[in-house]
Specification:
By secondary structure, the protein is an alpha+beta fold. It is built from 3 helices and 4 strands. A 4-stranded mixed sheet has the order 1-2-3-4, sandwiched between helices. It is globular, with a radius of gyration of 13 Å.
Length: 90
């Protein structure tokens, strides 16, 4: 991911992020089938994380496994965008 380091299973407030790039404030969530039954919870969770300054990217496990290149492209774009925003704020 262009040098961005992601850690796995990182506690953030009352939640645990699947993957976190702390430097760029990017969270990647890998959602399994159980998430189809908890859309309201996930929306509240995402809203809270975003209110803390994180960008949350959610992907279904199926997409991660079957369309890996597209998922990696979205994550790569988010890394690029975050780096560009950081440069502009200097």
């Amino acid at each position: 991911m262009a040098g961005a380091k992601f850690r796995r299973q990182v506690p953030i407030g009352p939640f645990i992020a699947d993957f976190l790039c702390k430097e760029l404030s990017i969270i990647v969530e890998a959602d399994g089938g159980q998430h189809s039954d908890q859309e309201s919870y996930d929306a509240r969770r995402t809203a809270w994380l975003e209110s803390q300054g994180y960008r949350v990217l959610r992907f279904w496990n199926h997409a991660i496994l079957t369309d890996t290149d597209a998922v990696m492209e979205v994550i790569g774009d988010a890394v690029h965008d975050a780096r560009m925003a950081a440069r502009e704020s200097w």
